[in-house]
Structure formats: structure tokens, C-alpha cells
Amino acid sequence: MITLTTIQLNTWIAALLWPLSRILGLLAAAPVFGHASVPISIKIALGVLLAAIIAPTVPALPAADPASWAGLLILAQELVTGLAMGFAMRLVFAAIEFAGEVVSSTMGLSFASFFDPNTHGRSSAVSQFLALVATMAFLAVNGHLVLLEALAESFVTLPVSATPAGIGAPLELARWGGKIFSAGLQIAMPVIAALLITNVALGILTRAAPQLNIFGIGFPITLGVGFLTISLALPYLGTPMQNLFHQGIDAARTLPGAASVRPAAAGQKFR
User: Transmembrane residues, as ranges (predicted)?
Assistant: First the structure.
């Protein structure tokens, strides 16, 4: 007859529950995995599967009862760690969507907006288009697999511990959030420059021929120039997007606990 003690049961529960909370936190916040179109049951099933695979490789866990206050604190800390990793990668897609919003406003196309089920808000058509392009590029370079690899490595670089994480991690995550504006403006800069030249040319044309209706001819011209510039710049967006994906993966590795990254992990490339 097989007999199990309470200590053994608690150890087995903790070995699966604590890694599962970090995994579910990442799946809830990370791009692609955390999209609103993915059913919650699929996310939970994938999280349990990943936890069953990763749990045997996790270093020694703290000797705490999962139902105690210390165990619940560890559970919450692991959930926050996973959310921080997924949110760090989500900021990359937010930067690309911000570039689409800037392009739409510059083109005068901000009125063409749709409901975004992921953010439960309104987003422009150009922003939705760039987000879809970024999602396909992310999947094409196996970014989702590299993100899961970073998640598995985080249990070694940032092991499950009863010690609270450093207070510098939220500050680093807030600083990383500034990438939304810098990277977004860099991506949108070709369209902004082309439309600036177009608006200057329209201003000179209106000054030379005041009888022209600038509102009648300016709007279709700016729309045409904007779409033409987007079509010309689209083939060259692969490199900046891939660089953003690299930075997002590195941020997901280092930001949650402000832990040092192993040389092999820091140099990981997409395949």
C-alpha cells in the first residue's frame, strides 16, 4: 500500500503550482499568447503542459506550505514575474501600434478606427495593419518559441524564492516603457517626413494659387502619399522589427528581477 505524507503532497503541489503561476502570468500578458481571441481554456491547458515539462528542471524550491501565507506570497510573486516578462514583450507591439497611430494622425486617417478586442479600445486602421504585420513577423522568426525558451531559462536565472524581488524591477520596467515612444517614432519617421514635405509643397501651392481649394485637394493627396510611403517602407521594416523583438526578449529576461543574464542567454538569436 502506498502512503503519502502531507509534506510530500505539499512538495508536489508546490513544484507544479509555483512554476504554473509564472507561466500563466506570461501567457496572459505576452503578445500572441495573450490575445483576446485565444480561449482561456487553451491558455490554461498550454500553461499546465508547459509547467509539467518545466517543473522537473526547476531548481530546489523553498520549503513552504503552498496554502500558508508564505506560500501564497511566493505564488503572487511568481504571477507578477510572469506578467512582467509578458508585459515587457508586449511593449514592443505597443511601440509598433503607436507608430501606426502617429501615421494615421499625420495622414488625416485617424477617423478610420476599429474596435481592438485586445485593448478593448479604438485603434486606427494603419495601427491594426502594422500590428498584424508585426505578429506575422514575430511568428516567422520563431519569436514565440524564443520567448518560451526565455521563460524556461528564467527559472534558473531568477529561481523561485521566498525572498521578495528587488524594488528596482518596476523602475526598470517603467524605463523600458519609454521604448514605445522612441521606437514608434523611428518606425513612423519615413511617413512623417514624406507627409511633411507634401504639406510644405501644398502650402507653397496654395500661396501661389489662392483660388485652389486646399481642403478639396489636400486630403486625397496626403492620403495617397501616405499609402505610397507605407508601401515603399514596408519591405524595410523587417530589420527594425527584428531588433525590437531582440530587445523585448532581453528585457523579458532581465526586467522582472533585475537579474544578470548569462552570456549564452543574452546572445540568443531568432532562428
Answer: 12-33, 40-61, 67-88, 129-148, 180-202, 214-237
pTM of the model as a whole: 0.79
Is 271 within the bounds of a domain?
no
> Which DSSP helix (H) or strand (E) runs through 115?
strand 113-116
What is d(CA 218, CA 88) in angstroms, rounded to the nearest whole number?
A: 40
| Structural domain of 255 | 6-266
- Indicate the number of domains in the chain: 1
Residue 112 maps to a domain: yes
123 forms beta bridges with 114
Higher pLDDT, 14 or 54: 54
pLDDT for 4? 64
Sign of CA dihedral 66, 72, 73, 78: positive
Provide the mean pLDDT of the chain.
81
Query: CA 184 to CA 187: how far, in whole Å?
Result: 5
Asked if 92 and 249 count as a contact pair (C-beta separation under 8 A), the reply is no
